[in-house]
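Morning, I've got a small favour to ask if you have a moment. Here's the protein in full, and shout if anything looks odd to you:
***
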Amino acid sequence: MTKIKEILIGTNNTGKYKEISDLLPKNIKKYSPVDFDIKSPNENGKTFNENSLIKASYFSKKTNLICISDDSGLEIDLLNGRPGIHSARWGGKKNNFNVAIKKVFNEMEKIKKNWQQTNSKARFICSLTIYWPGGKNYSSEGIINGTISEKPRGKEGFGYDPIFIPNGFQNTFGEMDPKMKLSIDHRSKAFLSIKDFF
């Protein structure tokens, strides 16, 4: 298996770009869609896996580079798995996660007024896809289980990190040292299955 020497990280989300970049070996040349002025494709898949494949194949075909893309999101049991694949969209047109987090709390309250008193189960899911020019592709999935905090806590990370407490920890991802988060989160778990390509 030829090791990958350069790769396009197929996301226009700066938080995601940094996390995927930090997972990849230091010596690999990394590109971003911004370098090629490419907008993100329409994500119309039904699953995280379908959406990560849509992104990886789209960016790879546009640049003729090997591409790695992720699709990830938060599933909350009380909300029957929502926001799920629509996690970013809950933040509106600008993907504002302060808006998205407010919406999560509002939706949870509609179903259960005192949800804060219960152990509100949730999980982060990440599907990572590597796509080669020519069509070969490989996907893997990582899941981390946890609970939803009563209010946003911490300034680290991005997205829903301030309201997610991984099982076995007291802190939200938003309060965690980024290196610590990256060593246990859904993205690093998905990466374990594909790191041999690098």
Summary: The longest strand covers residues 137-148.
